[in-house]
## 1
Amino acid sequence: MKRSEVTEKILDAKRLKGLSWKEIAKKIDPKQSEIFLTAGLLGQMKLTPDQAKKTAKLFGLGKLEEILLTEAPYRGSLPPGPPTDPLIYRFYELVQVYGTTWKELIQEEFGDGIMSAIDFNMTMDRQPDPKGDRVKIVMTGKFLDYKRY
Amino acid sequence: MKRSEVTEKILDAKRLKGLSWKEIAKKIDPKQSEIFLTAGLLGQMKLTPDQAKKTAKLFGLGKLEEILLTEAPYRGSLPPGPPTDPLIYRFYELVQVYGTTWKELIQEEFGDGIMSAIDFNMTMDRQPDPKGDRVKIVMTGKFLDYKRY
Amino acid sequence: MKRSEVTEKILDAKRLKGLSWKEIAKKIDPKQSEIFLTAGLLGQMKLTPDQAKKTAKLFGLGKLEEILLTEAPYRGSLPPGPPTDPLIYRFYELVQVYGTTWKELIQEEFGDGIMSAIDFNMTMDRQPDPKGDRVKIVMTGKFLDYKRY
Amino acid sequence: MKRSEVTEKILDAKRLKGLSWKEIAKKIDPKQSEIFLTAGLLGQMKLTPDQAKKTAKLFGLGKLEEILLTEAPYRGSLPPGPPTDPLIYRFYELVQVYGTTWKELIQEEFGDGIMSAIDFNMTMDRQPDPKGDRVKIVMTGKFLDYKRY
Amino acid sequence: MKRSEVTEKILDAKRLKGLSWKEIAKKIDPKQSEIFLTAGLLGQMKLTPDQAKKTAKLFGLGKLEEILLTEAPYRGSLPPGPPTDPLIYRFYELVQVYGTTWKELIQEEFGDGIMSAIDFNMTMDRQPDPKGDRVKIVMTGKFLDYKRY
Amino acid sequence: MKRSEVTEKILDAKRLKGLSWKEIAKKIDPKQSEIFLTAGLLGQMKLTPDQAKKTAKLFGLGKLEEILLTEAPYRGSLPPGPPTDPLIYRFYELVQVYGTTWKELIQEEFGDGIMSAIDFNMTMDRQPDPKGDRVKIVMTGKFLDYKRY
Amino acid sequence: MKRSEVTEKILDAKRLKGLSWKEIAKKIDPKQSEIFLTAGLLGQMKLTPDQAKKTAKLFGLGKLEEILLTEAPYRGSLPPGPPTDPLIYRFYELVQVYGTTWKELIQEEFGDGIMSAIDFNMTMDRQPDPKGDRVKIVMTGKFLDYKRY
Amino acid sequence: MKRSEVTEKILDAKRLKGLSWKEIAKKIDPKQSEIFLTAGLLGQMKLTPDQAKKTAKLFGLGKLEEILLTEAPYRGSLPPGPPTDPLIYRFYELVQVYGTTWKELIQEEFGDGIMSAIDFNMTMDRQPDPKGDRVKIVMTGKFLDYKRY
Amino acid sequence: MKRSEVTEKILDAKRLKGLSWKEIAKKIDPKQSEIFLTAGLLGQMKLTPDQAKKTAKLFGLGKLEEILLTEAPYRGSLPPGPPTDPLIYRFYELVQVYGTTWKELIQEEFGDGIMSAIDFNMTMDRQPDPKGDRVKIVMTGKFLDYKRY
Amino acid sequence: MKRSEVTEKILDAKRLKGLSWKEIAKKIDPKQSEIFLTAGLLGQMKLTPDQAKKTAKLFGLGKLEEILLTEAPYRGSLPPGPPTDPLIYRFYELVQVYGTTWKELIQEEFGDGIMSAIDFNMTMDRQPDPKGDRVKIVMTGKFLDYKRY
């Protein structure tokens, strides 16, 4: 069984139950970030055994599917090539347009290294604005120095 | 003349003068964000005529180069294919891992549409942390509804 | 279940009922543009709950399929690579041939920014012509200024 | 000599003279569409000998460059892969999102065939709108029937 | 149902009946070119309702399959990338080797434009030759002038 | 020196002399097909020493360039990926649409094998037609049997 | 039915019967080369009706599968992109490393043309060697002259 | 300096001197295989210091170029993607058609492992044949067992 | 049946039995390296008949699946393109960053040749470290000299 | 100026001086690993100002080149696509063959996370072996836990 099949089952069950990701996150583990849990249910993060058990119960999954949710998945949620979905493409566009700027400014501030995408967290909020509300995303990642040896 | 040749000239002049992007931004336009200006000097944003004039003076550019800085460039700062530089790749990895999560959560909150990469701004800061300082990036983009017609 | 499976079911039912897209659009929602609705039934736009209900009734779809029609789909209707179908390829060819012209003329008229593909609408008509009728496509998209920050 | 070198020379001369495409089009041939002429100067269309002569005079081009402007160029104005420039990408996105819709609706109305990208013309205008002006593009292309033989 | 599934059914039925394309073409419509009909049965051309009915009868297809044969298919008969089959690759090689020659000579003779692949026909014959028989392919396509506007 | 540099020199000299390919072919070798010679001058075929000498004289080429014209070139006249030029693309489209048809019909007539693209020749003519003149291309290639061993 | 499904059935039957390709070749046609026959059973060559009948009997294939074995397959045994299997990759590496050498030396010896991959045969043997046995592959292909016309 | 520049210099000098690869090989080192030396001069193999010195003398190369000839080059003689030159493509086609056959037969004979492309040698000869002479290529490569550990 | 189907069955059985790779390796063959065996169970190495029999018994596989485990598989464990999974990507990144360094240093030390990936072995260990434990990978591969001939 | 130009200058100077990487590393900084320094001189690592000064002196580089050596480079030492050089390809092959094995075993031992390629070091040695010396590579990278948030 593939993790993507578990994801598809979860999405179908979610549709029929009419639950939002917010509600699901609250039921499965109110202490974990909703972004992290959604990413897990979409097959990109590993759930704890307890979260997996609650997910299996909520969506009627079998034992094998429950175990799969506790494994580190082969990550990568998109088909090959630049994403064709406009919402996701805009983030890809940011990498195209700001890639070299991030490199210059982060390395000017911190030295040679990278912002970790592993020791990393993120929040997403609605920022009310009279000209049209805005999506606000805050990411922090640990700066990792290139080790000299 | 290509915009990328202007970028290369600016980078060489910056190296020889020993200036940081922070210092350059202050000299060219202290009211504009340092990210925006750096992106402009790296060939991804259009400078105002006044900013371009100051850039030309600071780095010894000619008239044609100054005009090019005031044009909307053909954007895209990276060679084709997934970026090979580790710092930039980590952002690409975030798109791979979180792409579908962003889609689900933004559209759950805002409805069908996208976060604009045009009506968009960003800050980047150092977040001190005893376990190792963190890079903090805050982005806000206007939510644009898919128009029904 | 995938949205593409819903699309395939709709296409098969449409074939057997012998309905045209014009007729279907009239039955589902005569106030919505026929282009928008067709795009929705082909898996590229989100229908309203009422439109989805009528679609499900018309084509004999189940509850899950009806719900899928009300979700923002992962957009992108074509296989990867340049389209091989000649009708669709001609539009791709227009992007290849006129891409830089659009950029120059739109930005000369409006400044730095883009024509939105989200706040966008389109009509398609037959333009009678003694030398052979013509396809007439009219698109309007809101101009979005690159935000300076 | 390559056509792209002529294009680059024209762009540099245009920058230094501070002319707009509108003004250039008026000087070179006020009876020809500004879109067509701009595309020609960007290396995508063939100019008439008279237009090429005026272009050469206006921008100080040599004889060889003037002749190149009167040749049918190897068309294609973009680097390989999906365009990275946001303005041009949005048109590519329209092909991704509306490709199958165009196919269904054009062929429902006209039968099996294509909209010509050769016997084709286009206009581009500003459509004033209180919520933000819109880019309006009107294209007409002759419908060509797939010949049965 | 996909057109490619209809093609596969036709091929299997043809195998079991031991019919050649020549014989099939005669049975379905002796007035239509054998090339055109074969391309239709392989999923690249649209059959007339009468041809589709005869095809369905000959090969035992159902109603849905018969209707699919009367639709303009999403054309493109090959997997992505250069064709790996040697017979088909040789035609691709001709495009690689003679592409620029065709462009120069057709445009020298006819002016700026293209040979239509839509208003197009083709024959294929055996040309006896003592050194080994030859495949003779004759194509004619309407010349289409690039419209100036 | 690369063969493509010789091609570029020939094209520039041809432009300045105002010669057509027909005229050039007559001057260089009236007994050889105009298609073959044009392909040679565009860097895809090998000229005879005598043809190369005449070409060098006509266009003012040096000794090294003359020798390069007598070498079998690394063939392939197009940039990588599907051709973006519309005239050349239409031939590529024929391969996409008719590839499997050619395979079926040639192998039905001749058995397992291919049409040679090496023992191959071609003519191109204008076919007058009241509805618009047509481009007529006739190709013959020796049929080569797959050797059984 | 696809040829690749026949190949998979043959491989499974071969596994369960515990036969080697050598033994199979002897049973099906001891006069045909073992390489040719293996390539045919792997879906790359066409078998004679008699060979196909014996194959069907040996492996328990049905009528349709037997007929498929007598058709010229759509050749190409590998997934797209450079082969990932090390044994097959080494041959691809030879093309990368020796490609231009083959071109120079074959054309120096034979003139402009190619080594046919159609009128071609091959043997493969073990060459005992005290430092480790060697794989010996002998290929001969008819030299085909580029036809001048 | 890049090895490809040395290759280009050698090719130009060879053209002007009118030498064949056979003659060059004899002058540089009659004891080394002509294939190996040609591959070296084309930038794919490393020459001995003595061979490099003789090459430099023969073709008038400088000291730096002579040293480059004695370095192990970054191998790979072809542009990316399947080769477009017909002579070289035919070898690529053999990999496509016979790849899985080589795998099955070599591993049936020798066990799990590969034919080395490093401990490898090759000869190329003309095989006279009344139906047309043939190119004969003999390769032997050491069989390397996959090490079990 | 494909090897990848056997791999998927093994993974599912392993999940339900709750065994680790270490435990499995011990049961199947305690004398073989755990890396080698895991690679085999993941479809990249060939097991001995005895190992295959024990695997089949442990996981409840059938005869055909057992035989498949004893065949040299078509190697390559990843989807095409750079790996999207972060853990695996980091190894790919090492090739991008250190590729030319490995080439320079290995060839400086050993001469022209390669490190074999066939006569190769590897261990993987946890290296305790107060700043965070480290993954330690040791690889040794036989150096193979490029054969001169 | 681009970093790759500095690399090319260093390689040329190294050739003419006849120095090995070992010798160069000793002169520039005997306390830094030879692998790290070679990677830096090949444009993949950032040197310290002191190392850059010594490099500039040793190889006769200018001020700008010296500064470039102290910048974090845009990393990635290889042309796009799988590497064609056999020595480097073998490492790429290890990723293809062992990628999933590394994932399974590292995550079984350490939990969900990655081996850092930033907090990473490496040694390379010759391992004498009577059957042929071996290349021994030892890598250690800090294990980074996927942060839960």
## 2
Amino acid sequence: MNIGIFGAGNMGATLGRLWAVAGHDVMFGLRDVRSQRTQARLFELGEHVQEGSLAEAAAFGQVILLAIPWEATEAVVRANAEQLAGKVLIDCTNPIKPDLSGLLVGHTTSAAEEIARWAPGTKVVKAFNTVGAGTLEDARYGDHSASVLICGDDEPAKAIVGSLAEAIGFEVIDAGPLVESRYIEPLAMLWIHLAIRGNYGSKIAVKLLRR
Amino acid sequence: MNIGIFGAGNMGATLGRLWAVAGHDVMFGLRDVRSQRTQARLFELGEHVQEGSLAEAAAFGQVILLAIPWEATEAVVRANAEQLAGKVLIDCTNPIKPDLSGLLVGHTTSAAEEIARWAPGTKVVKAFNTVGAGTLEDARYGDHSASVLICGDDEPAKAIVGSLAEAIGFEVIDAGPLVESRYIEPLAMLWIHLAIRGNYGSKIAVKLLRR
């Protein structure tokens, strides 16, 4: 599958590398000129990885991962809305205040629902927002796989995202329609507070136990 | 320990029974005259269990469990605020719309924070709101214990609630101050939607994996 990735920070670079290793072709869409850091990362990734502009990555991908800071998201999504229409957009953003004290949106809407409004016709799937980069690298915790909660309004799109999560070792929990992002995004805020303020560290992950 | 329980529904009755079995003395505070159903439950519980009015249960308990429907909560808490002052109040409520479609409060406040405003001087600890009654009965899922997320602004109160959770088999996750209820209450909404709409059923529980 061709996957475009908006952003090459921790989340984008890690997921891009893992999906390239799994046999997908990845294009990183960068907002700025390429950085030394990004180049070094891309160099390790070999021929299955390219870089380009955001518009080029949007055109390249059948699936696009949105992995840029929340404050840049509206402008980027609006500017690329035409290219994104009809495609699967994986939203792993969290609308977090710069001081990490809380969420900027919630309760009556969510980042994912806003993004869907900014890119009409795009099949937005919320996923990976509750997972730290360290857990992306290795989803195993002893004998358990960490859970990825996904939600969205397009079932085939959710199935694609689910298979991309399973391919890198996660258990997929289908949380229903995109509106469930209102409950999944606060879980990311909780994760961040546990990791940073609660001294649980970043090697923590949510698991849905079942019996 | 003397534990007063406001309400004798699924959550209140189950926690009351488990704590009575663990050696605590429990008084159920009932809003109405005793029901056949409540009597039958109390009969099974033996001498460690009493019933009374809400005011009597508030006076009896060193710790009070608030386990009544959200729509009755404000009136009940305000009416008993004087008795509750200085005590530990375990809030397991969720401010859920009657049709279960979403939360009534959130983002800029939470049920727990509202309750703390209604009962000044009470040491409110959010706990058990993300746990189904079936998981209360048995917190084990294979080789894992389900997690109880607790938060509150009084550390000794949190320690007491944590020990009450551990006594019935849970792993306790300290999520920090009471404001974290803004992120823990949406998790209960997610749990309910997964259980009911997502067809995961009620034998599901949240676990924080760590390594």
